[in-house]
Each structure stands twice: as structure tokens, then as C-alpha cells.
Amino acid sequence: MKKIVIFINSYNDVDNILPFIDYILLNNIAKIVLYKAKLSSLSSCKDHLDYLKNTYDLIPIDYEMNFSMFCKGILSAHEKIERFAYRAKSNSFLIPILFLSSILKIVTGYLLERELNRKQIALNSDIAMIDFGKELGLMGREITSHFQNAKIAVVGYLHGFCIYTNIGSSKKDRVVLSPLKKIIIKLAKPTKNRVYCDRYVVGIGQRKSYFSTSMMLNYKKQYLNRVHEIGIPRFTSEWILKYRKNVINPKEFIYGDKHKLNVVLFISNSRYNVDVKELIRTFEELSLSNNINFVYKPHTRTGIDNVGLNNNLKAYDATAISSLELSSWADVGILYGTSIGFQLLQDRVPIIMPRYVHSNSTIFEENDVCIVADNLEYLMNILSSSIEEINNMVNNEKVEQFIKHFVYGNESYDSCMNKFYQYSIYGHIQD
User: Fold this and answer.
1) Is the pLDDT of residue 86 over 70?
2) Residue of 141, 230, 147 whose CA lies nearest to 189
3) Contacts of 396 (CB under 8 A, 6+ apart)
4) Cβ proximity of 368 and 396 under 8 Å
5) pTM of whole model > 0.90?
6) 236 φ/ψ angles, rounded to the nearest 5 degrees
7) According to CATH, what is the number of the domain 2-63+121-236+409-425?
8) Does domain 253-406 have CATH number 3.90.550.10?
9) pLDDT in tens, 216-269
10) How far apart are CA 103 and CA 255, in angstroms?
11) Which residues contact 110 (CB under 8 A, 6 or more apart)?
12) CATH 3.40.50.12580 occupies which residues in the chain?
């Protein structure tokens, strides 16, 4: 039986790899060893981890637990220095911090490689799996190198879905740096050979979008044959049903006047070409509307950083409410940069795309499965309509085709999961 080692570090990691783990263990296809970095970073995954423990007796192993005290000390110092180094990129007076940060990165990388070799975590494994993108940073890079040096393939698994279809979806893609800024950035990121996974198992269309942008640090075109597109197991109706029933047991979210339209706005990271002024203006108008019960969900990792919302406005901050609960409550969802749209569509919740809030294009409007608002006035006009009128603005047949293509990869659930397994283990589909 194959042995698969999987690394998890955050909520997104666990949430997206859980359907795969469940499929493997339920069907007794392979043995899985789960590794985690820190308990604190997984505090929001208690339901997920309890499910694995109670159903399959699978408990994550802390691979940092037996690191030397010296290594742990350097790791702790590196984390603290990095907070200052991030500010130093925009403050030349803090440039000396960048020198210290660069030195610590080199030392920390060396120590991590040594500790991983000492612990022999690659021993007797068939493949290792890591949330794709992590292999480009500290710890993920060392983990990837450790397994590749042991001649064991590393698979980057999907941690979500990039809905953008345009190249240059991030503000940094359009920034022209001054010579001083270039020096500062070079100091902050000492040159090291990039380490990539041996293969990637991701969503449909990600080769042309995510893997062709700076989000993947300009992934080399000749490596695109390593990227295997299967669908998004996390948003299949089969998994959603099981997830709601057996994993999170969501409570019923109740808010506002039952006679009004329930509206939830999902806020995305502002660095993805978001017009923050338009977003704030939209937020304010939604808050002042007497026709709706307005709830907003900050980004899971960045919250409402760089948005500068007025906390005195009439709106419910749903940070502590799961997106599944919000999807069950909502009559309408507003989003411009998050894959939670798949969940809304599965729950037959109409999506409004406020195209004026950002300068990207997404799969939702390009496949005609959302209601497009090109200005704030039209958005508010839509929300003054009845639920029935808004539902009629969406073509349900196109939504069905969209879900079948992007979520299932035009396969059944079992076929999609089998492809996930075979691409991960072998890099191809076996006859």
C-alpha cells in the first residue's frame, strides 16, 4: 500500500485537501501521514481535525517538535525580524533590518534542511504533498528539497482556485520600481534557486491563469506539463453534503429582518487590482440601504487590511461565521475575487459581480453565471428587486454547465477523485 505524506499549515490547506484524504482513507487506497508546523496556525481547523481523528484515527504530527532548541530559537527570531523587514521595504530607514533578515533566511534555511535530514521524515514514503505555492517560501522550500533529494516526488495540491482570467491580476505586476526600491527588494529576498514541486494537481484552467502569472513567481512555461487540472473537490455537491453533515455541523445563521433581502459581501485582498475607494463607497451604500440585511465577510487571511472601513456603519462583521453558513443564509452574494462563488452557485444563490470595484476579469462573468454590475447605481438597483426577479437574472442551465466543467472537470465525483489520486501518485492516468 502506498504511503502519502501530507503537510498542512493553514485553514485553506486543510479545507481543500480534506476531500482527498477522506476519499483515500474511506476506500482504503493508501496510508496517509499528516504533518503540521504549529498548532496555533490550525486553530480554526478544529472541526476538520476532529473529523479525521474521530473517523480515521488520523492525528497530525508536529514535525517541528523535536527540532533543536537552537533551531527553534532561530526560527522564532526569523519570524519576529520578518515583521520589521516587511515594513522596511517601504521605509529606507529600516534597510539595516533587511541585512539581518537576509542573513537569518540563509541560516534558517540551512538549519531547517539539517533538522529535516536528521528526522528522516521522507523515510519509506511514496510521495509528499504540500499546498502549492508553499514550496516557494521558507520551510516549504526546505521540505520540498528534502523529499526530492531522497528521490521522492513532491505534489503541490490545490489550496483554492484563482478565479482571475487575466494576466497581471496583482497591483505589483504594474509597479515600476526605482533603483533604490530594487536594491531594497533584493536585500529582502536573497537569491536562491527556486524549488518547484515535481507535479501539481489543481483546478481547471489554472495553467493559463495562476501558473502563468507572478502569483507563481513566473513559473517556467516548459514546466506546465507538470500541472494537472482535475476540478475542485471541495465544491462538489457530494463533498458539501458530507462536509455539512459530518465535519462542521454548521449552525443556522440568523441576522436582520426576515422580510428583507439577505446580502453578503465577500471582501478580497485589495492587492488584486481592487479600487479601494469604490469598494468603500459600495460598502457605505450597502450599509445605508433599508432594503437589505447586510453582512460582510473579510478575507480569511488578510481580513480587511488596506480597506479602511468605517466601523460605525450598519453592517454585520461575519469574520467568525463560516462561509457555508453565510451561503445558506444569503439571498444574494456579492464577490469580485474569491472562489466562494462556487459554493454560492451550488446553493443556488445568485452572484453579483461589481466589475467597477476591480480591474480584473473572472470566470464568473466570462461564463455568464453571475449578474454583472458596472457601477454602484446599477448594483443598488438590482438589490431593490425581489428575490424572484434577481433569481431570474441568472441562467440556471449555464450554471449547471459551469459547475460540471470547473468543479467536476466534466467527470463524476468518483472519477474526479480517482484522477486526483492517480495524477498525485503516478503523474498520469493508468490504463
Assistant:
1) no
2) 141
3) 348
4) no
5) no
6) -75, 150
7) 3.40.50
8) no
9) 666 666 678 889 999 999 999 999 999 999 998 777 899 999 999 999 999 988
10) 51
11) none
12) 253-406
Provide the mean pLDDT of the chain: 85
Of 338, 340, 283, nearest to 314 (Cα)? 283
Name which of 353, 352, 381, 372 is nearest 285 in CA terms: 381
CA angle 288, 294, 297 (to 5 degrees): 125
Instruction: Report how far apart, in Å, the C-alpha atoms of 69 and of each of 107, 110, 281 are.
Output: 15, 15, 51
Closest CA to 231 of 330, 309, 339: 339
Contact 328/250 with Cβ under 8 angstroms?
Answer: yes
Closest of 216, 217, 229, 219 to residue 158, by C-alpha: 229
Contact 216, 137 (CB under 8 A): no
Chain position carrying cell 472537470 = 409
For residue 174, the tally of other CB atoms under 10 A from its CB is 9
Predicted pLDDT at 123: 78
Give the side-chain half-sphere CA count within 13 A for 301: 12
